[in-house]
Design a protein that fits this description.
The protein is of the alpha+beta class. The protein contains two helices and 20 strands. The protein has two domains: 119 residues, no CATH class; 137 residues, no CATH class. The strands form eight sheets. Strands 7, 8, 11, 15 and 18 form a five-stranded antiparallel beta sheet that branches. A three-stranded antiparallel beta sheet has the order 12-13-14, with no helix packed on it. A two-stranded antiparallel sheet has the order 1-4.
Length: 273
């Protein structure tokens, strides 16, 4: 009976964590460049149950033969293994702001390949994002709204000096101050990227991201005064949240039933009269 407690409890925890992941997706439905998370579930290892007994043979010496009868396997519950970002192109919408840039995917040879803007975090390390909601700081550098420098193809911060700059479809930045090329990174397996907050990704794999312009068969376009929207589908997320809530309630009812059975066993069946 305690095994049933553990199985139902594990289901409640898994669905609660799934609900948290879905809530995060819903809260970022309007965040430019946001990539929704998909929850992956996994069952705990199955256990093989067998009945172990001794069979007595009616002989003069009382022979006893061990006998094992396989009952079958039982699953001890499920858990949420991890949240995996869904790398799909979001809708591209016009904003009218020159500092907004959208990275439009073109031809990509690898099924799991993806493109990113390159930025520099507060520690001076290269990070990746699809959020092109940029701005120009007081020193004339092109930055994210969180203050991270947008990098060029050489890994240096881009300095436009003004918000009146032009960006060509190739990613070339033309301003009165300077000309440079946006740093556009390509990675053949975007599943190696993990979220770090502020809509940034870090490459957690062994393969380095490369300049998209140097990658064979990779095409893209940079659209100025446009933003790539989140790829979250609010209606689908709401349906998943309802399903997760119902699954949580079902496991909760199982726990309640086991609890009532244990109470009955402890207070009624085991009572001395």
């Amino acid at each position: 009976m305690l095994r049933g407690f553990n199985t139902a409890g594990a289901g409640m925890i898994a669905n609660q964590r799934h609900q948290d992941s879905l809530s995060n997706n819903m809260s970022n439905a309007l965040t430019p460049g946001f990539k929704q998370d998909r929850s992956t579930f996994r069952a705990f290892p199955e256990m093989l149950i067998q009945n172990m007994e001794n069979r007595n043979i009616p002989t003069e010496n009382g022979l006893s033969i061990p006998r094992n009868h396989i009952v079958g396997s039982i699953n001890s519950g499920t858990y949420l293994q991890e949240d995996v970002p869904l790398f799909e192109q979001g809708d591209v919408r016009e904003t009218g702001l020159q500092t907004d840039l959208a990275l439009q995917n073109g031809e990509i040879p690898d099924e799991t390949g993806f493109l990113f803007f390159e930025v520099q975090n507060e520690d001076g390390e290269v990070r990746y994002t699809r959020n092109g909601n940029f701005t120009v700081d007081a020193e004339g550098f092109l930055t994210t709204n969180e203050g991270y420098y947008v990098l060029d193809e050489a890994g240096a911060p881009i300095q436009t000096g003004t918000e009146a700059f032009e960006v060509l479809e190739t990613g070339e930045v033309i301003s009165p101050f300077d000309q440079s090329m946006l740093g556009i990174a390509y990675h053949p397996n975007a599943n190696d990227f993990v979220k770090e907050g502020d809509n940034l990704f870090n490459n957690d794999g062994d393969v380095e991201a490369v300049d998209a312009r140097a990658a064979d068969g990779v095409n893209f376009q940079v659209q100025q005064s446009h933003l790539e929207w989140s790829n979250v589908d609010p209606q689908a997320v709401m349906a998943d949240m309802t399903r997760a809530h119902r699954m949580f309630e079902m496991n909760q009812q199982v726990v309640r039933t086991f609890d009532q059975s244990m109470e009955l066993a402890a207070n009624e069946i085991g009572r001395l009269r």
